[in-house]
# Entry
Amino acid sequence: MFGCLHTNQKQILKDIEILDVKDDNDDLKESDWIRRMELLSQLRMIDNKLDSLARQKARTNWYKFGDMNSKFYHTAIRWRRLKNEVKGVQVGRQWYEEPEVVRKALFEKRFTATRDFGVNLGSVEFKSLPHEISLSLVSSFT
# Structure
């Protein structure tokens, strides 16, 4: 269905390189420019197909080996853990890696309550109820 993607990719890159050399020599015509744009579009499609194939192969490996305690499984877990790890934080112009400072800068700053709840609506105005009706909403039920 995909054909020889790597062969097609190499050929397209060669064709683009030829057109780039023409462009450097100021010999590029309008038709050559259009052809170059088409080649770039084809190259993007081939890259997307190659990415899709790589994802599918990784998925099949995961289904095949992922639930076992295999080297593939542990490598994938280790890679994900390293990718998600917070190594440090920049406060102002200073970089900190100490866990206590990172924890304080990341969590205390973001998860402390403020009086205005951090909401800034600018010039948005809301309709409000008259004072008598708003008092009736909180009065005792009769």
